[in-house]
């Protein structure tokens, strides 16, 4: 499985024979390859007018291109803002809550990402095919798909150390712009241009799989929540900057402590281990049916008092009794 940014074919259909040779070199004997574009065909065609585009079938005869649309970062940020607003709604009206949750499209985004990841994993597991995943820049939806596909396929990625290595390899080293994407979250009054919950959506997708396969992961939900917290606000330097070049210029390795070195201490690591874990060497296939996806309460409802509604119901009952 490979990942990249979009090819710069443009309106003139430019070619890069070196790219073609490199990608074709990954094909196994007698096997074909799949190019999974995380944009819709319409969006990919619009990108051609700006110098981008997608692979021409004539130049990649052994590859089949599939478009699996995943929304770009600005749409995802609007979705998060709507979701947070719904979770903080104090009206206690069931219809209003369900309507707001649906309008946020958050669970729809999760379904789209998981569907694309499952497709990539199926191409590799069931056909032994090579897979190339890309979107526009190759630093957002591309990373979501390749990371989740590895979790589905590789049991090592379901261990704590394996998952840490996955985050480093597929997110930090691949140049996901954490500083831009995780600037202020959805609770800020000002709106940042490049902000988006791309990494949070990835963690949410992992939680969905963890919930469906509770014994196949060495880490618990608490581990995922911890990563979410440190991506947005941390005393460690792991998620600072937008890429490895920036982190190198800032000399973060010399000036800050790594989150991993702290988490991997035995006394700290025990907090994040899953007591139900049993090593599972099999491929796991998560369900993407609407009934199988749930709101991640541990993140989005974490500050809601579970007893608030009971307290208010009790107060209403006492008032009625006193009135009568």
Automatic annotation (TrEMBL):
GO terms for cellular component: cytoplasm. Residues 1-300 form the Myotubularin phosphatase domain. Transmembrane segments: none annotated. GO terms for molecular function: protein phosphatase binding. Belongs to the protein-tyrosine phosphatase family. Non-receptor class myotubularin subfamily. Pfam families: Myotub-related. It comes from Struthio camelus australis. One of its GO terms (biological process) is phosphatidylinositol dephosphorylation. This is Myotubularin-related protein 9.
């Amino acid at each position: 499985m490979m990942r990249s940014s979009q090819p710069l074919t443009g309106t003139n259909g430019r070619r890069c024979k070196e790219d073609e040779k490199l990608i074709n070199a990954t094909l196994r004997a007698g096997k074909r390859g799949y190019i999974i574009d995380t944009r819709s065909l319409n969006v990919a065609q619009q990108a051609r007018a700006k110098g981008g585009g997608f692979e021409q079938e004539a130049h990649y005869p052994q590859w089949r291109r599939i478009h699996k649309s995943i929304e770009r970062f600005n749409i995802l940020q609007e979705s998060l803002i709507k979701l947070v607003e719904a979770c903080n709604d104090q009206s206690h009206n069931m219809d209003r809550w369900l309507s707001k949750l649906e309008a946020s499209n958050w669970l729809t985004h999760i379904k789209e990402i998981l569907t694309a990841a499952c497709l990539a994993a199926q191409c590799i597991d069931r056909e032994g095919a090579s897979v190339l995943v890309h979107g526009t820049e190759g630093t957002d939806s591309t990373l979501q798909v390749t990371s989740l596909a590895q979790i589905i396929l590789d049991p090592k990625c379901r261990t704590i150390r394996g998952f840490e290595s996955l985050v480093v390899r597929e997110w930090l080293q691949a140049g996901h712009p954490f500083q831009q994407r995780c600037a202020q979250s959805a609770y800020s009054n000002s709106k940042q241009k490049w902000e988006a919950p791309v990494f949070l959506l990835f963690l949410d997708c992992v939680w969905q799989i963890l919930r469906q396969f509770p014994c196949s992961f060495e880490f618990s939900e608490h581990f995922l929540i911890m990563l979410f917290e440190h991506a947005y606000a941390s005393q460690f330097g792991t998620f600072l900057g937008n890429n490895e070049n920036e982190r190198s210029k800032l000399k973060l390795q010399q000036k800050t402590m790594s989150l991993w070195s702290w988490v991997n201490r035995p006394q700290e690591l025990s907090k994040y281990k899953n007591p139900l874990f049993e090593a599972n060497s099999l491929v796991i296939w998560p369900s993407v049916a609407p009934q199988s996806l749930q709101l991640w309460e541990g993140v989005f409802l974490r500050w809601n008092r579970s007893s608030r509604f009971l307290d208010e119901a009790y107060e209403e009952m006492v008032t009625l009794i006193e009135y009568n």
